[in-house]
Each structure stands twice: as structure tokens, then as C-alpha cells.
Amino acid sequence: MSRRGLFGAAALAAGAVLTGCSSARGESGSAPSTTPKAGVAGAPKAAPIDEPRPAGSAAIAARHAGEQPAQWGMEMPGITSSFAAKGKQMAITFDACGGPDNNDMDDSLVNFLVAQQIPATLFLNKRWIDANPARLAQLAGNPLFEIANHGVAHRPLSVTGRAAYEIAGTKSAQEAADEVWANHERITRLLGKPPRFFRAGTAHYDDVAVRICNEIGETPVGFSINADYGATASSSVVRQNMSAAEPGAISLAHMHRPQSGTGAGMIAVLPKLREQGFTFVHL
Q1: pLDDT at 187 over 90
Q2: If 256 and its partner were Cys, which of 67, 96, 131, 152 is the partner (CB 3.0–4.6 Å)?
Q3: pTM
Q4: How confident is the model over 133-138, as a mean pLDDT?
Q5: Confidence category of residue 261, pLDDT binned at 50, 70, 90
Q6: Where are the domains of the chain?
């Protein structure tokens, strides 16, 4: 069984494996971490702030104008969905999708991660960042958390407008570049360094958009465990999904819907995974 089998047979059978966030369908000072980071093969290293960054979204988009994609989905060459673990390592990631009803934060979940010294990569949408400058500063100031890019409008990254879960994708090379670039620049200005990783809204990409993302300097990230189905899963389902973890897994869950089952499920399962010998690492 592939890593995508970690979703859970029942959800696959029902066609209800969600990675997007939507209001109607569930779209929600600490000591430094001593946990080692796990390197992701092929991931570009963040350039020092004094090195030149890409020329901008227009220049990058122009190089790909008119290209037709050959692949579409959540898995393809260029998308990082797992990593080469050193022992029983796994990476925990959380999305904050932003927009109406999606600009909150699950404080109980974040406080638990801090108290337990569990590192996580946080994929933050530009709308969420704009609505939460103080929260962003607090998160970014804690070495447990790496801030990553979750785009501007939470759209699938496409050059043809292809949709996922009824969410229309970006429809040109320029729109795809802008979806990554504007938040890349926003995070860089706020934190003084560019984000290294990007996850598209719904975690769907085409291969042209993957190349555009790479040229901006970010690694497109998928997942191997869909923990909370777009913040729609119950806490028991979150626990079940996370319990299927294998070394090198990257889990996807959501941190912006405190009323969902995500926080309770994670708070229950992460200590058990640690007891089983898992170490939590950054990407």
C-alpha cells in the first residue's frame, strides 16, 4: 500500500478525503527546541537575506507562459510528501487557511505543542497572516515553529484553472506565480527571511505550477497522512489517522478551527506516538 493509503479506507470509499478548507465543509515564550531537523532531499536552502531573490512573479511566469501541464494531483515529482527519516522521525505540519471564518487559531493545540516541545511547520495563508500579526510574531519568535507559505487566496496551484474540491485553481502561469509570490514576499518582509516551503490550497498542483514554485525558491509540499480531512474529522478519526504514521511521514492538519476535532485528537495521539519512539522534526 502506498503512503496515500494512510488516509483511511472509509474516507477513500466515500470520496471524502478533504485537504481544502471551507467554512461550510470544515475549512479552520518557550525554550528553544532541542529536536534535530530532518533534511528534505532536493529542498532548496533558504538564501541569506542579502542574496538576490528571484526577479519577481512576472519574470518567472513569463518563462512558463503557454506551457501545458502533463500532470495534476497531490503526488508527482517535485512535491515533497515524505522524507528520508533518521530512525522513527516524522514531521507535523498545520495549515491556517485564512478568509471568512478561517482566521482563528486553536490556542489549546498551539499551547500543547509548546508545552510538549513538539516542533511543527506552519503553512500560513496571507489572509490569516494579515488578520493575525501579533499571533504571527509570537509563532515566528518560537524556534519550535517554522513558518511556511500557504498562498494568497488558498487556491489549487494550476496554470489552467483546474479545480479541486470545487475550489477553482489559478488559471495561468501569472496567477500561479502570484499565488506563491505575494505571500512569499509578505513573509520575507515580516520575518527577515524567505519561507522555504509552500503548500497549495487543497494541496493540488500541476507540474508547470510545481516548476514555478521551485523557481520562486520554495519546495512544494504535500503530505503522507491526511490527519483531519480539512478540519472536518472527529478527534477519534484524527487519532486513528495519526496512529498509522511511519518513519518519514509528513502529517497534514489544520490549526485555525478550534471547534474542530483536530486539537483534541492531536493532543491525545502525539504523546502516544512519542511513547512508541517517534521523534518530531521540522521539514
Answers
A1: yes
A2: 96
A3: 0.84
A4: 95
A5: very high
A6: 76-281
Per-residue confidence (pLDDT) for residue 56, from 0 to 100 = 72
**All three cell numbers of 39:** 533534511
Decide: 152 and 176 in contact? Cβ < 8 Å: no
pLDDT tens for each residue of 35-89: 333 333 333 333 333 434 455 789 999 999 999 999 999 999 999 999 999 999 9
Mean pLDDT value of segment 256-261: 97
- What number of helices (H) and strands (E) belong to the chain? 9, 10
At a CB cut-off of 8 Å and minimum separation 6, what does 141 contact? Answer: 29
For residue 52, give the nearest of 223, 253, 188 by alpha carbon. 188
Q: Residue 231 corresponds to which cell in the numbers above?
A: 478540519
**76-281: which CATH number, 3.30.70.120, 3.40.50.300, 3.30.420.40, 3.20.20.370?**
3.20.20.370
* Residues 202 and 26: beta-carbon distance below 8 Å: no
The answer to whether the beta carbons of residues 262 and 31 sit under 8 Å apart is no
